[in-house]
Amino acid sequence: MDPFASTAELTFPHAVVVTDARGPIRTHGEVDESFRWASVTKLLTAAAALVAVQRHLVALEDPVGPPGATLAHLLAHASGVGPDSDAPVAAPGRRRVYSNRGFEILADHVAEGVGTDFGDWLEESVLMPLGLSTVLLEGSPAHGARGSAADLARLGRELLAPTLLEPELFARATTVAFPGLTGVLPGFGRQDPNDWGLGFEIRDGKAPHWTGAGNDPATFGHFGQSGSFLWVDPRAGIATAFLGAEPFGEWAARVWPRLSDAVLAERG
Q1: What positions does the domain Beta-lactamase-related occupy (predicted)?
Q2: Domains of the chain
């Protein structure tokens, strides 16, 4: 069965790339067309921040944001900073408060630590090394990137077989940080727990969710309100990138899990 049959109802431009660590397995749509990544941008920003950590230019324990919060808290949406405001809505480490503003604060901290504009650091530390030639950061490091599904899948391949980050740091980033925190997963409601790594959402047992029922609990990635996602399933050894021209809505909550399960079923 063609896994892309699950997207047949979609009437707007979209592209899908399924890849393993060696290269694309299946593609659908205009994979070189540029789309908005929205919050999938946070994967790039997290990677750039972690490269700075690895080079000892900043540290996960650096105090950043509200009193008691660190760079690690900000990456894991556990600082208590509100979604789009500096004003804290919870104490650090008490709730998973999904925060665009938190990622802007951490990007400013990284820029100060590396001594250059964050966009330049992102290009130097992530985009150029991975050959993400279509990707541009237009505005916020929380949601301002745009680029092709082909390049988003290249990021997926990097996350399947990391070259930018050492194994210990990568493992820490893709396992649960500050376990046991509840919170709201945008578009899918309250999750208990609402597990997150250092910039990477961890699937675990969340329901409902934008990945498939067949995705391993260790699956990590991100989705965006532009109608975008990237998930990486380390057990299956594949990643799937989706970009589209229609904002996230009921269609995505319905189609994305079916697409994910169909991709995994074909993989076997």
Answers
A1: 24-247
A2: 3-267 (3.40.710.10)
The count of residues in the chain is 268
**Separation between Cα atoms, residue 244 and residue 39, nearest integer Å:** 13
pLDDT in tens for each of the 268 residues of the chain? 689 999 999 999 999 999 999 999 999 999 999 999 999 999 999 999 999 999 999 999 999 999 999 999 999 999 999 999 999 999 999 999 999 999 999 999 999 999 999 999 999 999 999 999 999 999 999 999 999 999 999 999 999 999 999 999 999 999 999 999 999 999 999 999 999 999 999 999 999 999 999 999 999 999 999 999 999 999 999 999 999 999 999 999 999 999 999 999 998 7
Helix (H) / strand (E) containing 191: strand 189-191
In this structure, what is the dihedral angle of CA atoms 143, 77, 163, 136, given to the nearest 10 degrees? 10
> Model pTM?
0.97
Encoded tokens for 196? 């997150």
The span from the CA of 228 to the CA of 205, in Å, is 21
Contacts of 219 (CB under 8 A, 6+ apart): 202, 203, 211, 231, 232, 233, 234, 235
Q: Which of 45, 20, 23 is nearest to 200 (CA)?
A: 45
DSSP 154: H
